[in-house]
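A favour, since you know our structure tokens better than I do. Just paste the record in under my message, thanks.
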Amino acid sequence: MHPEFTARNQIGKIWLESRRVLLILALGAGAALVAQAQDAQTIVKSKYFSVQSIIAADGTSLEKTTISGPPTPPPGFEIQRQAVTLPPRNTSGPRVLSDVPAFNWVFGCSSVSGAMIAGYYDRTGYPNVYVGPTNGGVMPMDNSSWPTWTDSNGDLYPNCPLIASKQGVDGRTTKGSINDYWIKYNSTANDPYITGGWAQHAWGTAIGDYMKTSQSAYGNTDGSTTFYNYNSADQLTSTDMETLVNDKGIHISTLDGTYGRKRFYEARGYTVTTCYNQQTDNNIAGGFSFAQYMAEIDAGRPVMLNLEGHTIVGVGYDTSGNTVYIHDTWDYLTHTMTWGGSYSGMQLLSVSIVNLAPNESPTFGTQPSNQTVTAPATATFSADASGTPTYQWQVSTNSGSTWANVTTGTGGTTANYTTPITSLAMNGRWYRVVAHNTGGSTSSDPATLTVNTVPTITTQPVARTVMNSATATFSVVATGNPTPTYEWQVSPNNTDWSTATTGTGGDTATYSLTTSSSDDHTWYRVHVVNGYGDVYSNSVLLTVHVPASITTPPSDATVTNPTKAIFTVVPAGTPPFTYQWRVSTNGGTTWTAVTTGTGGTSATYTTPATSLAMQNYKYSAVVRNAWGSAFSPAATLTVEAKPFITTQPVAKTVTASATTSTPVTFSVVAKGYPALTYQWQVSTNGGTIWDNITSGTGYTTATYSFPAVPGDNGKKFRVYIENTKGTVPSNAVLLTVHEAASITTPPADVTVTAPAKATFTVVAGGPGPFTYQWQVSTNGGSTWANVTSGTGGLTASFTTPATWSGMSRKYRVIVRNTWGGGPSAPATLTVN
């Protein structure tokens, strides 16, 4: 049995009790009602979506969202739901994962979406995700392979064993998910296995089981799944879910659909590396962003997207317009939506991320070894890898920078590869083999082919024309093995030759010398020798001219915007000169000719009116004469500007109590140069008087945070920004702090003599009105129940019924106001 089954009965009782106190909600399109479920408040935003704010046992604020997306698309969105043509996969622009299945709705949109992603993994290296007999054991691209079925309401649905198992489907001979849990869409009744009194099936092959979809024991109506999120931009990780306890005393990991996806993959034998829920950045600043979504797709991972009323799968993106390619659970097609927008009338809400560790790929026991042959003999390379792989030999002609599959020789797809007849051109090539199985691909170590040949010159030296005092370089490319040696030679007349003794590299493939006017019209060649023979290169002419040069380069300039900056260059060499000023906006990486300002083709250039956007622009002049060009060093433009604000702080509204605080953060975005300083200020009189803040975090930075308490209500905040060029204050924004109820005086222990009654009293703090609910525990505080006897159970003072000797009880009271509250410390009743 699944380990979570042991908690099933307790969880089911809690959720069923919660259902009994829920209001019956009859909602039309766009309706939103509130139902009170014991301590928590549920906001039903539509008939497909509800959200409940809860406070965990440790005080953490969470959002519980229940999604019950419809089996068929809502009417009125046919244009948005038109299918799109998938773009080709490339490294920029549109990108789509082409192997993600698209399933029609069955059992619940969240489990359908989870199965589409799981099916993708089954098709891309995780073969144990789906192990049924259909399609040769590989998850099909849709659920048309299985028969349809009709539920008790007469509704027709498809099957997909990866979503929800069913007796008689995929060879199953016993009851499955649909038999045990399904009645009809949106049914709130107990599941059939509960009312029928049979043992539910063991989980293993259907992801919907682990996600708790449609399971009444976990509070889910038929077709619905529950997800939890922080009331912030933070990720609610699987570790957090294992730690946090909800307002019913149940660990979040027991109820959350994302954590269920994690348990499914672990049950299938795979390791989960990342698991979390996170609100998207259209709901909360700093939430899961389009850039993070693109990174998941680029890493080959589909993304589960939760909407306010439906769950879909993101399978690709187009950076143009922040477009998201999706499978929407209603057909086998691909559709689109805009990141942060809505689909079929339902707003993007959050993501459910579950990533797997890479599956095991082949490993090499025998690596290919280097081979040496004398042309035209062939060479054979061998390797051996584990994991029953297929092989593909590859060759690199650039020392491993790029590789291509071999197309000549024999055995290119076996463990032993033999080259074609070798030649000089093959000397130094690298060979490797790529072993591939369902776990992935592994490349062997490269092995080098050495081919012995006589020297051959493949690239001759070329004539050089250089300026006086410049460096002239002659190069040759020669092949041969053993490696040849070089001797550069010089001649005044292309007839009489001697060894070149000036310059550097006279015994290498590249020879360089610093020229003078006496080197004009001299000839050069190289003698290449190895043990198999020798060869002379062509002879080439060196011509020396006097070039343009820079005597005085332009100097750095510092101005205050919008003052123009002036740059000047002084050249040397033989006039006349031509000039072209250039500008670089990326620190000198790339340059373009100036097109604004004045004097762009003269020795002095004046910029247009400067702005902060021109900060650190670099300017350089290209000076030319008949014999060549000179590039001046770059001069840097520094533009100073007083501060200005691009994004103002915004007002905040939070809830705190006399005993608890709530973190509050104010932020500003400003620009200016030199560097800006920040001082956050607070006003307690509506903005008449401001005081510098010296507590909290970041009060001298662009982002200020502090714990807000009820006494901070009505304060105003602003930030004062300054640099050496000026100052600017931000807008003043209001902080509103709603005070939740607190316990000023908790109930005290009481001792009476039977049959006397006992009275417990509490004093509440914070703004009223207050509500009270007294509770009693008969097991020392392990469990609590609302009092059902005595008097004043819903007031500040509660009196027990008549006591009896040996009666042992603890009493506490839950106090709330409009903004929240909680239980008092317990008081003990002692009866003599």
Observations:
- DSSP finds nine helices and 64 strands in the chain.
- Residues 57 and 245 are 6 Å apart (CA to CA).
- The radius of gyration is 39 Å.
